[in-house]
Amino acid sequence: xxxxxxxxxxxxxxxxxxxxxxxxxxxxxxxxxxxxxxxxxxxxxxxxxxxxxxxxxxxxxxxxxxxxxxxxxxxxxxxxxxxxxxxxxxxxxxxxxxxxxxxxxxxxxxxxxxxxxxxxxxxxxxxxxxxxxxxxxxxxxxxxxxxxxxxxxxxxxxxxxxxxxxxxxxxxxx
Length: 174
What we know:
This protein has helices spanning 4-36, 68-88, 96-119, 138-157; strands at residues 42-45, 49-56, 122-128. With 174 residues, it is mostly helical. Strand 1 and strand 2 (49-56) form a beta hairpin.
């Protein structure tokens, strides 16, 4: 059974981890702004990977340009969902991977939201030119990694009964 102390320790780890990842995202964006803005791209691996500055006023891959209110609503829904999950989730080793995914989701959502609030655009700077993939940033990586791991966890790691705490019904503690 989860004690209140375990819950607080889990929440503290969640918030500290999230803060560190947000800081890392913001730091890399600041480096990109300082080093790449109004400069030619920096080739890391010729024909494969470059650093390029882009001010993205849209969502993933530049879609929905100028729809700031929509992005805030999506971020609010994500944050509310994670808040609900954290409230309901047992803080045990079994749920550590799920907690890690939630840290990545929140850090990614907040990292890009900070940009939208501060400057009305998100700084993107990572470009895989080999496949002409849209330019992205560290926060985008967090969200993508979290989504991939969530799919893997739900499909192959957690059983239905492991996730019953999401239903809102009382769940027996093992």
